[in-house]
Amino acid sequence: MPTSTRYDTIAAQLSMHLPTLRPRLRDPLVCALVGMSQTVSAQQRAIAGAMPLQTKQQSKIQRLRRLLDTATLTATAVYQPIVRAALTGLQRQRVHLLLDRVVLTKSQNVLVVSLGFRRRSLPLVWRILPHQGSSSLTDQQTLLRAAAKLLPPRVRITVHADSEFRSQQLFGWIRNRRWNAILGIRGNTPVTLDPSRAGQKLTTWLPDRETVVYLNQVYLTETRHGPVNVLGWWDKDDRGVLTCYAVMTNLRATWQTYRIGSRRMWIETMFRDWQSGGFELGKTGISNHERFERLIVLVCLVYLWFVSIGRWLVKRGYRTLLDAGASQAWQQSLFTLAVAWQNRLRSFDQPMPVFWFVYL
Fold first, then answer.
1. Integer Cα distance of 52 and 46 in angstroms
2. What end-to-end distance do the CA atoms of the chain give, in Å?
3. Nearest-5° Cα angle at 257, 145 to 181
């Protein structure tokens, strides 16, 4: 098979991380990773066009499609061993698991757990739901349990999620595992200081629309769930409508917790990188769930690789070669830094480094 420097480097890294991976899967996988990383796209024609094969474009597209039909290309077998090794430096650290759902197409409704990292997040586990709408408690627990198994020993976990995941059962399950929880709730949730009295809507506790309210040891909903701590504030939603946002947590309601809770939004930036800001996952035209899930495996491998490169660039002091922003006002994320670095290396005919390891 014709190869390139990038092909050889990726093949060597995969062989190191996945020593039992058979050549029959490894070789087309490497070709696909070369194509996807060169184009930063999930579009099949774009990936195939950049695959290092001396054959017709249609033949390369067919090879890519056969790869996406390969049952052994799974996140469990291919992606999870690599991401587990990449996160070994987080041992004993505080880590933030971000639970969210993204609708990539009409038929691709994906539940994701990622790891918050440097204003982005790293995908850990996901599941394409067989239906539209919200996920079940069982789905959420299954993914969070699987994500925790990928983390190094003795980490301290905080789980973040928006108000779609406001279930008291999920909150209690997280706390029973001795994890911290910061879960969104809605502004019309009844809140009371005394469990023997009916609560008032959370919005009535927020007369000042310029500040954050901090409520400790309160009870929620008509069933008086609690005591929990609540943080609430006003902000505009995506349509510019002023909306009450709030979270319930076991952590004390303080401004420090408010800042920690803002990390939930880091998964939204990853979703943007998956879509309009990078890979355009929502425009692949793939409706089959199994094939789409395998495509996500490829995207996550490249995404983890590029975030690793971006962090390495910052640690080496190379950020200013690519980002004109001040030290506290970056214009590029770790992912886009890696894309810019790839473009810079191309201008000097230099190879892109390949590794999966997240530096603190």
1. 12
2. 38
3. 20
Tell me the C-alpha to C-alpha distance, in Å, between residue 253 and each of 170, 212, 218, 260. Answer: 20, 10, 11, 11
User: Residues 306, 283: contact at Cβ < 8 Å?
Assistant: no
Buried/exposed code over 176-209 (b: 16+ C-beta within 10 A; e: otherwise): eeebbbbbbbebebbbbeeeeeebeebbebbeee
Distance CA(51)–CA(64), nearest Å, equals 9
Token look-up 């309160």 returns: 218
pLDDT tens digits in sequence order for the chain, 360 residues long: 556 899 999 999 999 999 999 999 999 999 999 999 999 999 999 999 999 999 999 999 999 999 999 999 999 999 999 999 999 999 889 999 999 999 998 889 999 999 999 888 999 999 999 988 999 999 999 999 999 999 999 999 999 999 999 999 999 999 999 999 999 999 899 999 988 888 889 988 888 778 899 999 999 987 788 899 999 999 888 788 888 999 999 999 999 999 999 999 999 989 999 998 889 998 998 999 999 999 999 999 999 999 999 999 999 999 999 988 776 777 888 999 999 999 999 999 999 999 999 987
Determine the Cα–Cα distance for residues 8 and 113; give it in Å rounded to an integer.
31
Paired residues of 229 in beta bridges: 249
